[in-house]
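Hi all, long-time lurker, first post. I run a small reading group and we've been trying to get comfortable going from sequence to structure in the token notation. Rather than ask abstract questions, I figured I'd post a concrete chain and ask someone more experienced to write out its structure so we can walk through it together at our next meeting. Sequence below, copied exactly:
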Amino acid sequence: MYGTIMEVGELLTDLTLTLSALRRRFVSHTGLTVSQSFVLSIVPGEGVDMSTLALRLGLDNSTVTRLVETLEKKDYLERRREEQDRRVVSVYLTERGEDIVALLELSEDKLGEIVLESIPEEKREQLIETLEELLWNLSREQMIGGK
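-- Answer (accepted) --
Happy to help. Here is the structure in token form:
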């Protein structure tokens, strides 16, 4: 029976690795790495400052800077200093970036389809609710920095 802390941790690790491999397969045709696809997927239409981007990705600022520089060279992102505080640099999707994000969303939809097809119909709503709760709790944990 699943339920011990070790079993849950191992299951989460296995799930993460499997999802990462599937994402790699789905984004390979775009010429993006998985990390680059995650950056593009979480940049909102109104942009995001670099520090928030690093926090959301769970990466240090220098790593995010390198990722953003690469995506800028591919014309998917652009960086701008904020007018109200020139020390803050925010990242915005370019038109080309919006196009690639639309392709990434199709890949995410395909992944969702694969997951849902593997779950009996009567358990799908419960799965979605559990995933939403898990995401909410883990996001909150990430924002407060853990215990």
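A couple of things your group might point at:
The mean pLDDT is 90.
The CA atoms of residues 80 and 86 lie 9 Å apart.
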